[in-house]
From TrEMBL:
Coiled coil: none annotated. It holds the Pfam family TP_methylase. The keyword S-adenosyl-L-methionine applies. The gene is cobA. It comes from Roseovarius ramblicola. This is uroporphyrinogen-III C-methyltransferase. It is an enzyme of class 2 (transferase). One of its GO terms (biological process) is methylation. PANTHER family: S-ADENOSYL-L-METHIONINE-DEPENDENT UROPORPHYRINOGEN III METHYLTRANSFERASE, CHLOROPLASTIC (PTHR45790:SF3), SIROHEME SYNTHASE-RELATED (PTHR45790).
Amino acid sequence: MPIQPASRHVVPVALVGAGPGGADLLTIRALRLIESADVVIHDRLVSDDILTLAPAQAHVIAAGKQGFGPATPQDAINALITGHARTGARVVRLKGGDPVLFGRLEEEVAALEAAGIAYEIVPGVSAASAAAAAIGQSLTSRGRNSGIRLLTGHDMQGFADHDWRALARPGEVAALYMAKRAARYVQGRLMMHGAAPDTPVTLVENAARPDERILATTLADWPPALNEAGLTGPALTFLGLAPRAARSRISQTIQELA
Ligand code: SAH
């Protein structure tokens, strides 16, 4: 059976996952959409080598939010997307990782629906998948953890609240996005709910990028270890998941050399 023809802007707007790092982790569908875009509106996580795939004449616009830092208001981003789509331009809204995870996808979809503009969503490789690959681990494993929680470290109200009691149970595994600044808060909540101090905590900074770094620590040592490591890039934090032993030794050596 022939392979389905690639989707090349059959609809005015594509909400596209750029993956966690370089262009080689884009999907082919994402690549084709970027290559045929008139306007690319991207967030700050999208790497330069991906943006250079847009046609030279395409309009490439940075519009994103940064943790607690500077932000383009969501309404302004929505207006950018719908405004360009109304001119007949083929718009790619490019988001780091997978747009269906912590990407404010629903807000943009709602704006498109309100404006009567058709759209498609193209999934991407999320940071949790890339970070798991980096530490040589599976996100789920028979007999270890039959599920995983994907959580945010902070939300619009500040540090995000979660089911700490459930998270503190032995064997629980969670992937925390946007959690660098929440380390002490999450540590406090988990300890309060009886989590073991030696619960593994693993951070992967810049997963799937050339400057990827792994920090393997424990719940007890997490905040000071994080302080000392001075991570500046985006980082994914695993609770209850340690790097495979060999990987851990490699990263320790790297840290000792650094
Ligand atoms: N939609 C994205 C997540 C956006 S929220 C996805 O699916 O990956 C932004 C957070 O994602 C960052 O604060 C960080 O926790 C995580 N993140 C994104 N890219 C990352 C990378 N290359 N390495 C580690 N964490 C990353």
